[in-house]
Structure formats: C-alpha cells, structure tokens
Amino acid sequence: MSLLISGIALGCVYALIASGFSLIYRGTAILNFAQGGFVVLGGYVAYTLASSASLPFAVAVPLAVLVMGVFGWALQQAMFVRLAGRPLFTLFLLTLMIDSLLITGMNTYKPWSQSPKEIPTPWAHDLTTIAGSTVPTASLWVIGISIVVLAALAWWLSRSWLGLAMEVNASDHELAGILGMRVRRVSAVAWAAGGALAALAGTFLAVFPQLLDPSSHAVGLRAIPAVILGGISSGMGAVAGGLIIGLVEVYTAAYAPDFLGTNLHLVVPYALMLAILLVRPQGLFGKAEVHRA
Question: What would the pLDDT profile of 222-235 be if each residue is shown by its tens digit?
Fold first, then answer.
C-alpha cells in the first residue's frame, strides 16, 4: 500500500507535467522541452512565497500558479509569436535554449541553489495509516489536488471552444486561421496553462517527503515518456501515461534485483517510451495520422 500511494502520487506529478506538454503541443504543435525548467522555477516561486514572504500555503500555491501562467504567456508573446511560421525544428531548439537558461539561472541564484528546499505545508510531516501501511499525508493531498485539477481541466477542454480550437490549431495552423480561429490567442492560452500546471507540479516536488533543487529538472524530462506513452495529442493519455510511469518507477526502485544497479528505475520510463514508439508511435490514446494522396 505504501508503494502504491507513493507511485500514484509521483504519477500525479508526472500527469500534471505531461498535461502541460500536451496542452502546449495541441495549441501550438511545439513540444516544449523547457517544461522541466518551468517545473523547477514554479516550485522555487512557490517556495519563495511560502517561506520568504511567509504566505500561507493555500495562498502561496495559487499565486505561484498565476505567476507561472503569466510567465508562459509572456514567453509566448515575446518569442514564439515573432517566430510564427518558422520550421518546427527551430522552435524545438529555442525551447531547449530557454530550458538551459532557466536551469543555469536557478543554479547561479544562491538563495535557491545552496541547499534543497521544502515548502512548509499545513500538514507538515504528518503520517496517515492506510490498510496497515504508514504513508505521508502530503502524498494523499498531492493525489487529491491533482485529481481535482486534472478533472477540471478535462471538463474545461471538453466543454469550451478552446479544446476544439487546440485540436485544429495543432493539426493545421493555416486551416485554423481560415476557419476564423484566433491562433495567437489559442497559443497564448496553451502556454499559460502549461506554465500553470508546471508550477503546481513543481510545488508538489517541494513538499514532504520530497525536496526541490535544480536537479529536480530531471523529473520534468521523465514526464516526456509519459506523454509519448499516453499519446501527446490526448489529454487523457497524458494522465494515464503519467500514472503508469509513476507506478512503474516506484515499483522498479523497490523490487529490481541488485545486480541491475541502483538507478534502473530512472531508465525504465525511457525503455517504455522506446517500446511504445516501436509498437504504437501515436501512444495508447493518440490517433494515428492518415495521409492520402
């Protein structure tokens, strides 16, 4: 039970990050490799608001989400609007550059990088007993909040014009413009939502029993296999992929034979990604592209 709760909690963090990847891709056709940097930056913003500014957790987290949403929107307006129409490879390289700048800046800023950070929470280091197993109360809160946020996101996308607009925008920008869709607005909302989800995921990486430091950037990268596994164009796939990767990673860390090394759990997500790319490139819930002559 302890491993199950830990795996679901980690999977929820991956699901939030993967949903950010998926939203930005659906809204702009860009795979944002800076999402890992967004996650760490969002966690540090929440830590600063909760610790340095002494704001309550319930206030600091929504503010951090808002700050990163504005950051994602501003980044899209400042850079990607100006590069509209450029080859996707150029835009991919730009996201890699942004990620490197973010991580370098956070490593250089001593108040953040000197030691791992933990965001103070109302439940502190409380433990809860479930089915005879003791689990951190924080893990249960992470699962509960993630379910509410992801369910609200799914409802919003399914009931609003934005969900359909994102699908059309990702498949064909020119068609979206011809249909009268405001392509720039759709792209801006996608980047803002991706930044907001990254901030929430970064916050969860800095609550007990986990700590946040610049190396947490690797967690954002391990969400890429979750996106590929579930299907990058599918919101449901991002959630399912995140949960699968989280559970597989936790159980591999617990039960992998010693002769396979101590970091096999960090490799398994990428092995799953390779397998799904070979067997079903569009992912479990993605739709295969059809080209007709």
Answer: 889 999 999 887 88
CB distance 170 to 27 below 8 Å: yes
Q: Is the dihedral of CA 239, 245, 248, 253 positive or negative?
A: negative
Pick the CATH number of 2-279 from 1.10.1660, 1.10.3470, 2.60.40, 1.10.357: 1.10.3470
Task: For residue 48, give the nearest of 117, 100, 107 by alpha carbon.
Answer: 117
The amino acid present at 257, given as its one-letter code, is P
- Integer Cα distance of 190 and 76 in angstroms: 9
How far apart CA 44 and CA 34 sit, in angstroms, is 16
Helical packing angle, 183-204 and 2-28, nearest 10°: 160
Backbone angles phi, psi at 211, to 5 degrees: -130, 155
57-112 pLDDT, tens digit per residue, is: 999 999 999 999 999 999 999 888 878 777 878 888 999 999 999 999 999 999 89
Phi, psi dihedral angles at 221 (to 5 degrees): -70, -35
Q: Which of 264, 278, 236, 261 is nearest to 22 (CA)?
A: 236
The residue among 241, 230, 167, 193 whose CA lies nearest residue 35 is 193
